[in-house]
User: Fold this.
Amino acid sequence: MQVPLEISFEGLEHSEFVEKRIREEVSKLEQFFDKIISCRVTVYLPHKHKTKGNLYAVRIYLSLPGGKMVKVDRNPDQHQAHEQPYVAIRDSFRAARRQLQDLVGIWAGKVKTHQEQVNETQG
Assistant:
């Protein structure tokens, strides 16, 4: 990466273990696509519940060549498994990887864009 990884925590204390897990996930993304310009990750608690555990959420912003961005903001409202920060991190990075794979496929010409599909049906 050209810009150092940024990790922040909102509404919860910093955790070395969570930061280490995020760094591992970012490293996996870089192994898949080594042209990532920057990455910002935020772990936060969108809601604080008194009767049940807190649900963690993760935001990921990847800057890519050509001004492209991958944005993931996993809202945990429907995912009780997100009571564990590691699960929220895993799910968020899976979503980021899928988006990154789609972009890389388009750049490599392996995935047709919607415009190409429309042009083919018109011809």
